[in-house]
Write the structure tokens for this entry.
Amino acid sequence: MVQVHDTAVRPASSEEPGGLPRVGLGARLGTAGVLVALVAALVAAGSWHLTQGTSGIGLRDLASLLLGGDGHDATTRDVLMGSRLPRLAAGVAVGFALGVAGAIFQSLSRNALASPDTLAVTAGAYLAVTTVAAFGLTLPLWSSGAVAFAGGLLAAGLVLALAGGAGTSTTRLVLAGSAVAMGLQAATSTLLILFAQETTSLFAWGNGSLTQISLDGFEQAAPVIVLAALGGLLISRRMDLLGLGDDTAAVLGVPVRSTRAVGTVLAVVLTAAAVTLAGPIGFVGLFSPVIVRLLARPVPGLNRHLVLIPAAGLVGAVAVVLADAGIRALIGAESALSVPTGVTTTVLGAVVMILLARGSRDSGPTRQPASGGVGLRSARRFAVVTAIATVAVVGIVLVGMLAGETWYLVGDLSLWLSGSAPAPIDFAFSERAPRVAAAVLAGAALALSGSLVQATCRNPLAEPGLLGITGGAGLGAVVVVTQLGASSTTQTLVAACVSALVAFAFVYLLAWRRGLDADRLVLVGIGTWYGTTALTTYLLVRADPWNTPQIFTWLSGTTYGRAWEQVAPVAVVLVLAVPLAVAVRRELDLLTLDEDSPRVVGVPLERVRLVVLAAAALLAATSVVAVGVIGFVGLVAPHAARALVGGRHARSLPVAMLLGATLVALADVIGRTVIAPAQMPAGLMVAMVGAPYFVYLLWRSKI
């Protein structure tokens, strides 16, 4: 038996048991100062928030009411208690709950990209509310919040069941949650498209709204939030030790599995309470703990969860309240009514997060996230999987050519290939061929791009959107349609491609600081991604309703009406990127290990990263030209490939490309046949088809 001596866990008097740094008096004062500053900021932001509204009641009226003056005190009191105070209370509660939930979940997963949203709580709540509205279900007023709460908890329960329980590996939990969340989001988007009239108001609600008619919602949610936050504080010491690694924590007496289970349940309850109170306000749970950890470099005491948890909650509360008051002051209270709270909160949080990430190299326990890699597989298995995947691609291409509103035969396809088909058949196949090619090539490009990004960032949750590509492309397209009045597909696609590459350049330059740090790239990239997505939502909410269905469909990913000139760019980039990926396959294997291994063997790390990320950006940008904005493929195809053939890039890259091509092409076929003659966007079908398959692979694998 190996004995663990005291000196093994306390190498110096400056450390406490477990190897954790001792927090001295100066650091404690600094920590207390940060908490006091956050409380003061929340009080100041809340005071300002109370002066903003549509009734014209300002600071003087509120001061008069507070001092017991006469005049319009009754009206002021009614406005304060009936609208402004409930809105402020909701903002504080929601921001605090999401900040605490994010802190807990990021610490348990040791991943900067983990957030309450990755447990599908938000997606489940949104789908439940959308389903009720779409099918015209009549429910009593008191149960409206219960629908969202129940939907969120059911979704989280599904994730936990698929991942093997709340105490399972955090990588499995996060990946299962991401897959389920994307599938539920796709189902919600499908209902929004199919039942546009019945769900008109839900697009804004889906981005969060602090509108309240009384304090009843706050009074119901507050006890739940307080108790769950206290529960987080009770396990704070355990989470401190979990930051050292599961094995070390277990040696030091931490019940790892039960701690992770309790923390996960607390995060789920906090998120469900927040969604019930104000709808899905995203990103708060992600950026709040990241900001606190970035501040922990000058104030190390913030890394301790006894301080980190309330600090993250306060940052979230300040962000929500400040963003809500700021947008009212900026564009007027009347105009701000149409802007979802989640949009302004995301923009504010993204800016702060990027600025802090730009000036820091450390993001706390997220510096070494749990790996998504798997062990080696045999060469025979690689050959068999590659052969099956190749046959699948060929088969889905054939079905894609034959399927549609009108099904054709193989003989009809032969006539078309020989140039002797009748006019109707020639027209049908001439329309389907570029569509099928776009789906296959874009799927392969997205899968290859995702593989390159995950290897470079060493993060199992990374995908092409992390480079700013997805958000930049969507923002560019929406700008030219809603602000410049562009109506042609070519103008939209050119704007999307250019803005995607500009966004990548923006992310890369901001992440560069005497070298490219993987952690900084992740934080800047995700801040840019969410920021551009929030601006896109803002423009769509305020745009002409007649323009939004078309652009919303494009943002969901579509292969409808493709032409060969839209397919050509992604084909050219693939021809250039595939040989490059083959040439740097060994460097990619080294990049997935750590920062030092590539340098030890003489790999020019910065040069390789720049080339690899540039190739990934071009692949993702040209895929936008081919099929619009399609997510999920770049995230799950690399994981599925590694689960099937192992982590070596010489084997995983070709399999990932084949899987990506199959997934998008299959989604295209289903999207244009399942409700023919109407069609569903391919991007939505990708998530709905791919999520169950990915969860099955996750269940069978050892990720």
